[in-house]
Amino acid sequence: ALRKASSAGRGLNRVHIFISKTVIKPETCVPCGKRVRFSKPALKCKECRAVCHPECRDKLPLPCIPSCPSTPGTNKLSEGIISDFAPSERPMIPRLVVNCANEIENRGLSEVGIYRVPGSDKEQKELKEKFLKGRHPHLSNIHDIHVVCGCLKDFLRGLKEPLVTFHLWPSFVDAADIGDRNKCREELQHLVQSLPQANMDTLAFLVQHLQMIAETPACKMPAGNLAKVFGPTIVGYSCPDPAPMQIMTETRRQNQVMERLLEIPRDFWADLLCVDDMSLFPGGTPYTPDFHSAPRSMLGPINTPDMTEYANEMTRTATTPKYSTKTFHSKKPSRFFSSPVVN
């Protein structure tokens, strides 16, 4: 049976598609963190490019998030939008977002004030840099779960455009102002489906994640608190460089939009992430290649003569003449391999 990720209910059941390789340059096994030495066999996922020992294949974290086609650069994150960091296939959600959210759900649901308690800025930046360089950091090795939370928030904060695009921002604000909650919900659902694909997929994933936190009493983070934390990064402002007075007036509006989005039932968000199973299992069910199999010649095996007899023949020498250093070797065999037999 295939292992399911913690986000299995959100259309993220993609598994790894392994190919075998012989290591030339030493690499690190993602699950165990140990080095894969020179000339040793290894497995590499053709989608996310994670490398592991053959015996560690079942420990490679799920879901598999395919590598994005291109990343603007680790030092110029503000120049990228969400689609620059997302896979080219659905669900189009960056690996950083999926892995951080899953780790927080695994370890952080007992933390009071999750997403409000700050973590180490240095560790957050180092973690984000590893993700943006295409690496697979071990989130389970990060002792402070607030560092993982800060990494996710910092990534969203650094985007050139929030998930709610500047073009649709006024429409989202107007929809959130509708007094009738049913009409408000219908209008917001329509606007969400009008977002670009990567924006919509990432928003649907994050809203379900935040709804889980809001429904966990131990976290003490209701929807209103989460809206204040994520309103500036998910909803944002109406333009890239708002004026000071504009920031004051739009902050309340963005929090209102975020809170209304969190009130939309989870089924709506889950349906947005439902994708065809063929995109989650490209090429069929994955398997581990057999390292011991090797192609056979159509001509049959090649017979090699006895090397001991050949070595003795080569080292057998004649008597060395007086006043001479020349050694007379026996004649070298004219044929090393016997001809294969063709039936």
From TrEMBL:
Phorbol-ester/DAG-type domain boundaries: 15-64
Disordered: annotated segments: 321-343
Transmembrane annotation, as ranges: none
Superkingdom field: Eukaryota
MF-aspect GO terms: GTPase activator activity; zinc ion binding
InterPro entries in alphabetical order: C1-like_sf, PKC_DAG/PE, Rho_GTPase_activation_prot, RhoGAP_dom
GO cellular component, one term: nucleus
Keywords: Developmental protein, Differentiation, GTPase activation, Metal-binding, Spermatogenesis, Zinc, Zinc-finger
Keyword Cytoplasm belongs to the record: no
Domain Rho-GAP: 75-269
Record-level GO BP terms: cell differentiation; mitotic cytokinesis; mitotic spindle midzone assembly; Rho protein signal transduction; spermatogenesis
Annotated PANTHER family: RAC GTPASE-ACTIVATING PROTEIN 1
Protein's recorded name: Rho-GAP domain-containing protein
Origin species: Elysia chlorotica (Eastern emerald elysia)
